[in-house]
């Protein structure tokens, strides 16, 4: 037995009559043993009862009885000859030994990676000294009434609430009550200053935030619901779109909006057909992102100064894209802003009307404003200058969309008479979390120096934990959530945050297989529906069913065969009475090389049956030139999401399964669950949140797990690449993302630092250095 904190835990169990000893097992196999336990295959070597492997954060791995968790049986002592060495079962093929299944291995000798590292509290947290910011008595009656009804404000918050005339910049650190200030300020304007709600423009980052703010306003004392409804609130896009459609309803009717990415791609591809850009090599998605960036920066096509060949080509596309849209009478989201900007510029009388109408501007998340938004605000507020901008430069995370925190940093240049109020009390998080966050963000160079103070301290330090890989990471998080729910936590207390959607695959799977309620972003597609992943899985499907029509359709792109060939394949299959897979060998493409490859698809696909999913995937990669396909169609030119990464992630997922059928069944189940959970997410009000860090901005949770805090993930590879070429801005934005993630936690924060990522050794995120070093800087 292992002694942990004075309690004894079991270190041995039986699997298929063999003794497993945790002290001797390879780390890699823990996840597999965990799964065997879930299937009921692990037994206690002493009493024979069913046991499971505990793989969590708060305790070290150990076996426990399912029926009586606290029961402690005796471990068996293991003879050295009963210790297995790592072993795989092989079959012979073409003179090669190919592994078909992996036995759970144990090894007497352990390398450093194989040793389970206990979760560690973060270092360098200074002792807590409370700075009481509350209990001020305000001369203003309404503010006093508010504090009596439970809406407390500190002195700086109150100053921000009551400074109504003239420009005001509220620099609000994380958790410092930005939302509270904006809401209370609006209430104060309506109730105390009797300002006409129709003259107030309240800009929020999402439509949901505006709706929530209005709802909260209704709870304020003396609030008139009619007045609240009359407030003009929403996102920049929605507000300026309303203006455009008021002046030109037909031109801006919603049916003409290109609201899907593929619609924009279609327009641009059509407009540039004659340029003969190779669709397989030119990253149209990136080009559209760049075009959007130019538009939001108010750079017209003829004013672009390309910095390289790619930008030069993209500038041509930009011109064509704009022309094509105009000819067809269509518009995109960016046009809602640039269109309004043009409307005001070309029609000073219309601008004048709106300048008279809107007297007060409240803008939330000001750090994420872009050029066109900023110019629009400046135009509208030119007469009154009553702009209240609230933001935190440390939480600016949308540079890729043209946002620029510089507008916040330079606010006083454009509004020299501005009053600046810094909110530096963090009411959300415990001192230990605030202090860790302060240290992380202090290393950014492009920022206003500030440090947050917490309002309370907790006996719980933030923890780093060290899973073996993405799979074990997900298991450890699930176990920890279950442990905490047993202690009385609610599902709504938890959020699991990740850098990109792809990073959530394993956690999604673990939660989907549990009975815990959780919610997902509505646009989160299933990992197994991604283009490259679907293609690869289709080969595996065809090895089981050669007549799977969808699978044939999905492998065609990887073989560089047009979709129109599908009809011929189906007809052939009826005429010649052969399987759809066999018909591939009859396709005439006119290229000998391609035809011989198509002939090879049949034996290679058939050879997959009996292999493990990982070996099957590797076989397709090697034998059918799948990597060529990825190079051409895997968005390898894309900065954020590459097909080659998807393939690596797929292999990590596949490692959990020994047979193709089991793995494919799992992928189908997960696809179905993705849709189901998204539906359920709409109605859940007590569920665990699974979210990207971007989407979690502005939200708070009692317990936060930050997934994948390793180099390449957070900071993301694209930022590291930019940094190597001398541009540190993307890396600073990644550090802000870490800051946003960490500051979502109220009491418990767990940062995961897996040993492996995408099958390779991973290194702890550089952002963690200040809180993991032994000495303070
Ligand atoms: N004066 C106050 N006294 C007590 N609690 C407060 C006070 N101000 C804000 N809070 C609480 O602190 C938490 C954080 O506030 P809020 O969400 O408004 O912060 P924020 O500045 O918008 O945060 P972020 O920018 O990090 O999303 C909320 O739970 C809020 O109710």
TrEMBL record:
Residues 151-430 form the UvrD-like helicase ATP-binding domain. PROSITE patterns: UVRD_HELICASE_ATP_BIND, UVRD_HELICASE_CTER. One of its GO terms (biological process) is recombinational repair. ATP binds at residues 172-179. It comes from the Bacteria. It catalyses: ATP + H2O = ADP + phosphate + H(+); Couples ATP hydrolysis with the unwinding of duplex DNA by translocating in the 3'-5' direction. PANTHER family: ATP-DEPENDENT DNA HELICASE SRS2 (PTHR11070:SF2), UVRD / RECB / PCRA DNA HELICASE FAMILY MEMBER (PTHR11070). Keywords: ATP-binding, DNA-binding, Helicase, Hydrolase, Isomerase, Nucleotide-binding. Residues 431-698 form the UvrD-like helicase C-terminal domain. It comes from Cytobacillus oceanisediminis. InterPro entries: CoiA-like_N, DExx_box_DNA_helicase_dom_sf, DNA_helicase_UvrD-like_C, DNA_helicase_UvrD/REP, P-loop_NTPase, UvrD-like_ATP-bd. It is an enzyme of class 5 (isomerase). This is DNA 3'-5' helicase. Its EC number is 5.6.2.4. One of its GO terms (molecular function) is DNA binding. GO terms for cellular component: cytosol; DNA helicase complex. Belongs to the helicase family. UvrD subfamily. The lineage of its organism: Bacteria, Bacillati, Bacillota, Bacilli, Bacillales.
């Amino acid at each position: 037995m292992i002694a942990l904190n004075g309690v004894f835990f079991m270190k041995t169990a039986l699997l298929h009559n063999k003794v497993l000893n945790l002290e001797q097992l390879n780390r890699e196999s823990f996840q597999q043993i965990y799964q065997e336990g879930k299937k009921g295959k692990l037994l206690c070597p002493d009493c024979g009862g069913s046991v499971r492997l505990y793989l969590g954060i708060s305790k070290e791995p150990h076996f426990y009885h399912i029926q009586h968790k606290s029961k402690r049986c005796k471990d068996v002592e293991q003879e050295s000859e009963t210790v297995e060495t790592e072993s795989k079962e092989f079959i012979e093929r073409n003179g090669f030994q190919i592994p078909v299944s992996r036995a759970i291995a144990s090894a007497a000798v352990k390398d450093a990676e194989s040793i389970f590292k206990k979760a560690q509290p973060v270092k360098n947290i200074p002792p807590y000294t409370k700075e009481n910011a509350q209990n001020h008595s305000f001369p203003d009656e309404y503010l006093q009434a508010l504090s009596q009804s439970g809406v407390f404000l500190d002195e700086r918050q109150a100053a921000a609430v009551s400074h109504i005339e003239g420009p005001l910049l509220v620099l609000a650190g994380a958790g410092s009550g930005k939302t509270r200030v904006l809401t209370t300020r609006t209430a104060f304007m309506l109730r105390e200053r009797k300002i006409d709600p129709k003259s107030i423009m309240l800009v929020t980052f999402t439509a949901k935030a505006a709706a929530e703010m209005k709802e909260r306003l209704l709870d304020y004392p003396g609030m008139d619901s009619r007045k609240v409804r009359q407030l003009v609130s929403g996102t920049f896009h929605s507000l300026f779109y309303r203006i455009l459609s008021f002046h030109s309803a037909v031109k801006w009717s919603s049916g003409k909006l290109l609201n899907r990415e593929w619609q924009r791609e279609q327009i641009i591809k059509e407009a540039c057909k004659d340029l003969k850009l190779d669709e397989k090599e030119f990253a149209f998605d990136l080009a559209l992102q760049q075009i959007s960036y130019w538009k939001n920066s108010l750079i017209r096509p003829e004013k672009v100064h390309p910095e390289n060949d790619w930008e030069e080509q993209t500038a041509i596309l930009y011109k064509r894209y704009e022309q094509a849209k105009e000819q067809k009478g269509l518009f995109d989201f960016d046009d809602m802003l640039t269109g309004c900007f043009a409307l005001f510029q070309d029609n000073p009388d219309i601008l004048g009307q709106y300048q008279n109408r809107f007297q007060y501007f409240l803008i939330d998340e000001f750090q994420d404003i872009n050029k066109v938004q900023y110019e629009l605000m400046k135009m509208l507020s030119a007469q009154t200058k009553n702009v209240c901008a609230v933001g935190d430069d440390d939480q600016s995370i949308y540079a890729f969309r043209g946002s620029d925190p510089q507008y916040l940093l330079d606010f006083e240049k454009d509004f020299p008479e501005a009053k600046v109020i810094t909110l530096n009390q963090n009411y959300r998080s415990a001192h230990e979390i605030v202090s860790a966050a302060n240290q992380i963000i202090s290393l950014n160079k492009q920022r206003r120096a500030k440090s947050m103070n917490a309002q309370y301290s907790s006996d719980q330090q933030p923890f780093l934990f060290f899973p073996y890989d993405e799979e074990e990471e997900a298991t450890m998080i699930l176990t920890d959530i279950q442990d905490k729910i047993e202690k009385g936590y609610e599902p709504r207390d938890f959020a699991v945050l990740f850098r990109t959607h792809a990073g959530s695959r394993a956690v999604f799977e673990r939660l989907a297989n549990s009975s815990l309620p959780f919610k997902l972003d509505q646009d989160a597609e299933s990992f197994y529906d991604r283009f490259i992943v679907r293609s690869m899985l289709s080969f595996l499907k065809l090895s089981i069913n050669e007549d799977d029509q969808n699978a044939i359709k999905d492998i065609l792109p990887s073989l560089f065969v047009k979709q129109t060939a599908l009809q011929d394949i189906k007809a052939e299959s009826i005429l010649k009475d052969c399987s759809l897979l066999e018909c591939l060998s009859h396709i005439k493409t006119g290229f000998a090389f391609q035809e011989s490859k198509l002939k090879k698809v049949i034996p290679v696909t058939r050879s997959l049956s009996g292999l493990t999913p990982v070996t099957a995937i590797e076989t397709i990669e090697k034998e059918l030139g799948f990597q060529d396909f990825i190079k051409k169609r895997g968005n390898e030119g894309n900065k954020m999401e590459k097909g080659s990464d998807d393939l690596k992630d797929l292999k990590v997922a596949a490692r959990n399964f020994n047979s193709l059928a089991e793995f494919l069944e799992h992928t189908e189940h997960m696809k179905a669950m993705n849709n189901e959970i998204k539906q359920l997410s709409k109605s859940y009000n007590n569920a665990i949140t699974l979210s990207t860090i971007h989407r979690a901005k502005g939200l708070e949770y009692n317990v936060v797990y930050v997934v994948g805090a390793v180099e390449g993930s957070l900071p993301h590879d694209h930022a590291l690449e930019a940094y190597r070429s001398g541009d540190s801005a993307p890396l600073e934005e990644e550090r802000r993302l870490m800051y946003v993630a960490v500051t979502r936690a109220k009491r418990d924060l767990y940062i995961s630092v897996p040993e492996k990522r995408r099958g390779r050794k991973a290194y702890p995120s550089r952002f963690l250095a200040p809180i993991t070093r032994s000495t303070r800087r």
